[in-house]
Amino acid sequence: MTKMRKKQRTFKAIILVIILIIVANTLFHSLKRGVTTITIQKGESSTKIAEILKDKGLITSKTYFLARLYLSSYRGKLKYGTFKLDNNATAGEIIKKLSTEGAKKNTVTVTIPEGYSIEKIRDTLCEAGLVTESEFEDAVKQKYDYAFLDCVPNSDDLNYKLQGFLYPSTYEFYSDAKATTIIDKMLSEFQKKITPLNIPNNELFSIITKASMVEREAKIPSERPVIAGVFENRLSQNMRMQVDATVMYVITEGKYDTNKVYYKDLNNKSKYNTYKYEGLPVGPICSPSIDSIKAAQNPAVHKYLYYHTDTNKNDGTHIFTENFEEHKKTQ
Q1: Which pLDDT value is given to residue 318?
Q2: Are 104 and 81 in contact (CB under 8 A)?
């Protein structure tokens, strides 16, 4: 009888210890907030994983964690990689996350500034290690399922049919993301930005083309609608647009790595060259911001036909004039 009582007391003591561990573990996690990132290397044992969790303060007892794992359906299924775990997660929740959700993939954050051409976007993505040049070039030629792309004309003179439609922003991509996935995300962002403007599809291409020129020409936000108004005035009078940015796009192959346009450049035969050809360039010359798109959609109403940089202020502003004589006098 005595031995039986001793066994019962021992068993009760074990149960009590387990209950205390559970209570302590619950109280411990109920007081914590936030997220902790852990990295588990390939091949690490469950015991090592428990040590990592204990060191990070995510569990209070390695023994309890291993016991829960052993008795769970996730035994032998813990994965390696980088995980973000809630600080107040229970051992059971941690085990499930490490076993079923898998590791968070490594990501790369990349910023595409306003006014970048597809050529510069390509180089930026290549430098970030997300794509190779050939992968990007192949992907940008693919067909994407967006209704707004129906506005793009079928023209062999276009360098890229998606030029102007890859929206400039800061993106986070998985490091192993496909080039088509990256482009699709940028097109999706364009759609998100453009939808509230309710631009008719038959006007969209010309508006994005104008907006791309505004983006490259305007340095001061308040001048965007004014410059867009100059474009409208020139078009209405059948003047050549004569926008330097269109020539720069051609002579720099989309890199915009020069600020100088020489007289000989004005005769370049590219259909983007608005000095040689009347009307708008054959297509957009960069990815415009939403502000430039709005300016092109709602240009300022005025009589200006000319503008040039105000070299006296040297702050990016322009001097606007209504005729060529005034334009020459202010230079």
Answers
A1: 92
A2: yes
